[in-house]
Write a structure and sequence with these properties.
This protein has 13 helices and four strands. The protein has a four-stranded mixed sheet. Strand 2, helix 12 and strand 3 form a beta-alpha-beta unit. The N and C termini lie far apart (75 Å). 27% of the residues are buried.
């Protein structure tokens, strides 16, 4: 921490500041101020000091106030730090190369706020144009900004620090490993006696080695700094795209009737292990109901794609179900079509191919008597499929209760979520019971 000399008394003259670099041997109070001024590099302050030192009477006897103002200015505008020399294999410098970024700070960046406010304003304008006279507009710009803020923070944070095991940590680990190998490729030459004629040559060689090593370390660090920045930028950009699709889903009308599909109690047909059905259920998946296997066989036949169902613990409890939560069967699963359908640069599956896939899913539904409902975040696909079928078979996977939002576009875990319901079993279970609204029987 820089220390300052005490300010001069009112009746004490200030030595003349003839040079911008004062004599270091002089132990004067003016030297301390001038040293500070020189470090700041502020020419205006330098000029003010020189005038004050040469013509103190013109300052109206307010020397103390003037010096205090100079000190305050130095605190408000500290001098730029001299760049720290590159130290190969330095853990702190490496961590600063790939810095921890708070998603909440990203939300408040001016360009993010500008674009999100534009999406929010468009959302309100669409609803206002569609609402009947005297109707209430619920998706106002302010409401949408409040709605998206926490979902943005959670979603971006999940992608950067949770999904795929912390992308920052992975990049930092890679950087440190490569930098360590780079240092090993520049071995130092053991010095000889300083009296040796070769000493000067060896010193030059060592300086050249260190210079070349630092240059390559700087280039490596820049590569990883850029990689991290690209990950951050992509997460932000794709969330804005995600929010725009959600805004359309919330405010644009669809010529399709609502439809609901519910998970049934497990005791109606039990479950089967993934290992028993590798042709339809992904490796490592949780058990699924037998209806999932039957449904996916029909989907594969109709679509010509070897799509697999994948389930994880308690998947079904986050979706609509009938009966007791603890008894709900395994009727929810995910399908990842990566490698089966091309992913466009916008992060979504190719629209034409995916629409054809959903049409095949509907044919499989009709042939098996199994109702279906899906979640996917490309509104163009949602609207096209729903209006073609006349029923809202696809919904948008929003971040419930402020959680993170996924189901596309990449990097937001591109995949399709399915809920299915064997109609005959559902009808039998509901005999004598009240039927839920819009249930697809």
């Amino acid at each position: 921490m820089r220390t300052f000399a005490p300010k001069p008394k009112a009746n004490q003259p200030i030595p003349s500041a003839k040079s911008p670099v004062p004599d270091q041997d002089q132990n004067s109070e003016a030297n301390s101020i001038l040293d500070l001024q020189r470090n700041i590099g502020n020419q205006a302050v330098q000029r003010m000091l020189r005038i004050n030192a040469v013509e103190p009477d013109k300052q109206g006897g307010k020397t103390d106030d003037f010096l205090e103002e100079v000190l305050r200015e130095a605190i408000r505008n500290p001098p730029p730090r001299t760049p720290e020399p590159t130290i190969p294999n330095d853990l702190i410098q490496q961590a600063h190369t790939i810095p921890q970024i708070d998603p909440e700070d990203l939300w408040f960046l001016p360009h993010v706020q500008e674009r999100m406010k534009a999406v929010a304003a468009d959302t309100e304008a669409r609803e206002r144009a569609a609402v009947m006279p005297g109707g209430v507009v619920t998706h106002t710009a302010d409401n949408m900004m409040d709605y998206w803020e926490q979902r943005f923070v959670n979603s971006v944070g999940h992608i950067l620090y949770e999904r795929r095991g912390d992308m920052r940590a992975k990049l930092l680990k890679e950087l440190r490993k490569k930098e360590e190998k780079l240092v090993e490729s520049f071995p130092a030459v053991p010095p000889t006696s300083s009296r040796s004629p070769e000493s000067a040559e060896q010193q030059f060689s060592e300086q050249l080695r260190v210079s070349n090593l630092r240059e390559q370390v700087d280039a490596l660090r820049k590569t990883y700094k850029d990689k991290w920045q690209q990950e951050v930028d992509r997460a932000v950009e794709q969330y804005i795209a995600l929010a725009n699709n959600e805004a359309q889903y919330l405010t644009e009308s669809q010529a399709a009737k609502p439809v609901s599909v519910y998970g049934l109690p497990e005791f109606l047909e039990g479950t089967v292990e993934a290992t028993a059905h590798p042709e339809t259920v992904g490796k490592g998946s949780e058990p699924v109901s037998p209806s999932v296997v039957r449904f996916m066989k029909a989907v594969q036949k109709e679509s010509g794609l070897k799509a697999l169902a994948d389930n994880y613990p308690e998947h079904e409890t986050h979706n609509p179900y009938l009966g007791n939560k603890d008894e709900v069967g395994k009727y929810s699963f995910d399908v990842d079509l990566s490698g089966l359908i091309k992913v466009n640069p916008d992060g979504f599956y190719d629209r034409k191919a995916l629409i054809e896939f959903f049409m095949a899913v509907n044919r499989a539904s009709e042939s098996t008597g199994i109702a279906w409902f899906a979640l996917y975040n490309d509104f163009e696909v949602i609207k096209t499929v729903n209006e073609t079928l006349g029923k809202r078979r696809i919904g948008f996977a929003g971040g419930g209760r402020g959680g993170s939002t996924h189901h596309g576009p990449r990097p937001y875990v591109l995949h399709i979520h399915f809920n299915i319901m064997p109609r005959m079993l559902a009808a039998v279970y509901l005999l004598g019971k009240r039927r839920p609204p819009n249930i697809d029987l």
